[in-house]
Specification:
Elements (H helix, E strand, L loop, with lengths): L1 E6 L6 H14 L4 E5 L13 H8 L3 E5 L4 E5 L9 H5 L7 E5 L8 E5 L15 E6 L8 E4 L3 H12 L7
Parallel strand pairs: 1-5, 1-6, 2-5, 6-7, 7-8
Antiparallel strand pairs: 3-4
Helix pairs in contact: 1-4
Amino acid sequence: MKLYGVTGWKNAGKTGLMERLVTEITGRGLSVSTVKHAHHSFDVDHAGKDSFRHRQAGAQEVLLSSRNRVALMTELRGADEFALEALLTRLAPVDLVLVEGYKRDPHPKIEAFRAETGNPLIAPGDPTIRAIASDVPLESDRAVFDLNDTISIADFILREVGLSGGRP
């Protein structure tokens, strides 16, 4: 599986870019999975539901399955957070895995940047960032794309990972 990341500070446009990239790349006939890092506690089920009750009772893992989807929840219960590399082994094979977050991991990335957030660029100090997707023109030693130019960004990523995906 090929791996490419979308990184940036909070409210920089990462999730919107990820969503557009998944739509664009799958529309070209390639299979894509995503991994999203959350810096906070989150829940995918709700109090009172069977799966929630199983976790509350102490289950290490809870697998939910229906004819529409499968979800596996693992309770860490104080153990260390899984490394990205370990999480990737749990995914079914696809052409490309897009990773949102994990800015300190060594995979290649594009930085989403919005000037209005007031945050500095991460790219100057991080050689794993190969390009910047920005809402304002920037001078950089990396490729710079308009944050909304999904087609050009997808072309760049696919070239970077060595995948061909012709536009429909």
